[in-house]
Fold Acetoin utilization deacetylase AcuC.
Amino acid sequence: MLKVAWSEIYAHPLPEGHRFPMEKYELLPEQLCYEGTLSSENFFAPDRAQKKWILEVHEEAYLKKLTSLSLSSSEIRRTGFPLSQALVDREIHIMQGSIMAAVNALEAGIGMNIAGGTHHAFSDRGEGFCLLNDIAITAAHLIRAHGIQKVLVIDLDVHQGNGTASIFENNPKVFTFSMHGAHNYPLQKEKSDLDIPLKDHTGDDSYLNLLKQNLPALLDTVEPDFIIFQSGVDVLATDKLGRLGMSIQGCRERDRLVLDAAKRNQIPIMCCMGGGYARKINDIIEAHANTFRLAREIFF
């Protein structure tokens, strides 16, 4: 059975007028259940991530400031969020959601988190709507607790996974692959193990051809025994914060390529949702829902 991490805490509201679309975390599970892709039995509510796993990748001084709500005003501005205890609690639950989704994938082949993909969080700071880095924490947990020797991070959000790249810069057990808009946030890019920067308005054909060219070679050379897939849908042409030109169908085909490759090569995969800021909430929900539909189709 496909297991999906989700909790009501994911939809914690932000002040009115804030541009981060928190409503997608409530609407997406509703849509998936309404159409019959998932049922209530597919969802599990994660607890808080243990401090020891967070400290595998984050500095203790930063975690202490975050959890005590003592970040400086400049540190808070960098995250893009108004800081609150509810927001920090939400983030810590999301970390555990990704950890447990990955553990489920070790048995079922795939596990998914309705949230996560917080790839802009560095070891010592948060940035870009990311307070803690669930991709990094999950990879560290797999290596420490489950004996995984090589994790491949496939980050296809429109924004470079700069925090993840920095955290694993000198870690041979994690290979970071980021395919992102060259001129999108962050202005200052980090160095992933493989970066593919894309021109503005890159459409379906060019994007998918590049992915088809690189993904098989990555699997052959990296030889991962686990994949973490950041499946952000801010690659859409309608996205307010993206600069690419993909259609919803193109985004679906992107996900199919990744999930098919994992299934065909018998590599467990954990999918976290990443960004999505289209002008129409329906576009965000449809694009994210496709990832779950494909997971059911390919793995079950």
